[in-house]
Amino acid sequence: MYRILITNDDGIESPALEALEVALSTIGRITVVAPDRERSASSHGITLNQPVAYKQLAPNRFAVQGTPADCVISALRIFAKPPSLVISGVNMGSNIGSDILYSGTVAAASEAALQGIPAVAVSAHSRADYVSAAAVAARIAEQVLEHGLPPDVILNVNYPLRWNGEFRLTRQGRRAPEPLTDYEALAMGYVSISPLQINRTAHNHFEHFTGWTDQLGAVFTSDGV
Hints:
This protein starts with a strand and ends with a helix. With 225 residues, it is α/β, with parallel strands linked by helices.
């Protein structure tokens, strides 16, 4: 069976985490490694200056005194070998638009991608049925396990307040519901699936800066530096 790691930023006692564990149990062997308390909006912080302690609560459940990214790093020490897939969630609250920058849920998936493991971040509207959101996450997990993900790419999945039964591939939006964004998809009742990449280089604007290095060098030369 596939070996699947589940984590989150709402803490190991989150009922939405348990719902995800149940939903995924039919497709793989599950291990939960999650923060010992809520770590929302912790972004991609990791612990550097002290040991990251963890406590085993059950054969497949571990509570970590650290951030969601710490949980993924700790899990790789706990596992005999890396898992086939990491699912972070279900977060009780959407992670779309600029909120992605602050999200511990997304950060855990990103840390998994940095470690070379396919990963999905799953969030739901704060008043949504997180059991249904977990079932959707399991369907997406099956697709990822079958087809894989490109290197350094994660999926950011968001479940709406009232699902219309359909999925939409989206891009990260802003506060206004622009076309084809995660905001618009949720407003229309779709499950939003946004592929996010770890490499944050502004490739579309790279040309804009190509002449800067020569100009900066000329300035330093003329100043005698």
